[in-house]
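Hi there, hope your week has been kind to you so far. Thanks so much in advance, here it is.
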Amino acid sequence: MNRPFGTSGLPPEPVVAGRTDPIAQHVRAALDARLRTLLEHEPGARSGEEPERLHQMRVSVRRMRAVLKSAGPFLDQRWSEPLREELGWLGRELGEVRDLDVLLGRLRGEASDFEAAQRESAALLFGPLEIEHRAARESLVIALDGQRHRALIDALVDAVQRPLPASDVEHCGPRELRALVAKQYRRVRRTVDEIGTDPTDAELHELRILGKRLRYTAELAEPVLGKPMRQLLGAAKRFQDVLGEHRDACLAERRVLDLLAARGPAPDPAIAFVAGRLVERERSRRLAHREQWHESWRELRGTAAKV
């Protein structure tokens, strides 16, 4: 469909799904809701004036991908998988800028209470990140202006206009929705069992991704399954938040060390001192959140047992 770029083409009323509707209709409603959010925030993401707009675009893309993956057995995957792949492309384009938004905001905030001379050293340390951020933003705007993005939006708009292509699975109601959530939870539980009590930072990152998929799948089921699913959503969010803070601290610590290393074997002592202060703070946070993740897992496990 050749609609003007920048117009949604969506029906005036959001797509809805009832309790007894098939899973494909719940996926359609979820895609419609996330697409409306994506389109609402795209102008702000383009301008770069409001980083939160870009964040909301990225979250919308992630949720659409997660819903398509979780509900895969109930969809025609010849249709859904290519759409997931294109959403993955857009997510990567958005993610590069968003990750730098978060990192720069975090490091600037940390340096804001330094003395004036140390703030100047921090600004010099962050210089390469600023350059990287500008380049990533330029690349994102090119991508958003391109034909590939236009085609993806058209495909999503077309998808929510009519019933989605479904698989040959006959039964796809509340019981099957619960089974989708249970499947994602079992993946989280199995990973927790495998990594033990002293996981690596990389293992905690993988666990965070699985927790996010569980949360997004529970969002798909919440309108049908009600209060127990809302409680699971809350516990999954807290679990994800703890692991997300751990991941952010890991990334910030590593990037600061990389920035310092890039200045050569004998960096300016003032810059090295500032880098050391930042690394110390991020390492402290990383270790603190390592201590918290298992408690948040126990809460999630207890809540999941009631679903």
Observations:
- Confidence is low (pLDDT under 50) at residues 1-7.
